[in-house]
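Much of what follows relies on a compact textual record of a protein's fold. The record below shows the convention in full:
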Amino acid sequence: MARYPDDLDRWRLAGRISAEAREVGRAAVRPGVRRREVAEAIESFIRSRGAEPAFPANLSTDAEAAHFTPPPDDEGVFAPGELVKVDVGAHLDGAIADTAVTVEVGATGRQENLLRAAREAVEAAIARVRAGVEVDELSRAIEGAVHARGLKPIRDLSGHSIQRYLLHAGKSIPNVSGLSSDRLEEGEIIAIEPFATNGIGAIENGPFGHIVRFRRDPGAADPVVARLFERFRTLPFTARWVDEADRPRLAAARKHLQTYPIFLEAGRGLVAQAEHTVLVTADGAEVLTRAPG
C-alpha cells in the first residue's frame, strides 16, 4: 500500500520555496559579488517565505563538487568563468526539499557542454521515475546522458531519499549503474542529483567546508549547545547562523558534531550539478522543485 506523507502540501510548499531560492541564487551569482552575500541572500529569502534553510547554501566552485559554504568572515568574490554549484534547500517543520543548478559566472558559454550534461541527466532520470522501477534504471539514464556529452558522471556521489528532518534518509540514487538493487516506492520523496565532470569521475575529501551537524542529542550539560540542538536538530548548519558569542561553545562541542569536508573532483576537473526533489507516484514523478512559472 502506498504511503504518501500525511502533510504532502507542506512538502510541496517546501519544494516551491526551494525552487524560488535557487533562482534567487542563480540571478545573484555575478562577477565581483561576494560569496557570503549570495549565501545570505538565499537563506534570508527562504526565511522570508516562512521556511528555514534545510542546510547552508552551498556555493561550491569549479573542481569543488559540494559542501562549500562561506564562513562568517568570508570576503571572497565570484570571478568570470567560474562554475558555481548553487545547491539550496528549504524545510517546513522538517519537510525538506533539495535542489541545485550550476551557473557559469559571467555566462561566457565556454562550459555549456558541461552544464547541459548535468541538466539533461537529471531530466533523463526524472523521466524514468515511477513506483516499482529499479533505481538502477535512473542511474543508467544519468550515466548515459553524461557520457553522451563526452563527460563522466561522478561515481561516488549520489541522490538520496528524504524523510522528515532527514536530508539523507538511507536510499541512494547513484549516478552510475550497477550500484543499487533498490526499487522506488509510491509516495516516497527522493532527490536526484547528477554530477558531471571533465575530470576522472571521482571525488576526494578536501578542507573543512564550514558545515556541521549534530550526530545526536548532546544533552543538557551545556545550555548553549542544547539550545543549538533544539534549533537545528540533526540538519546541517553553519557558524554564520550562530550568534558570535555562542561560536566558541559550538567549537568546544566538536565531539557531538559531524563536519563536512569539501568534496573535490579527484582529477581536479570542472564539475557541474543539477538537482530536483521529486515525489514518486504510481505512474511517474511529481517534481517538487520546478522553477516558478
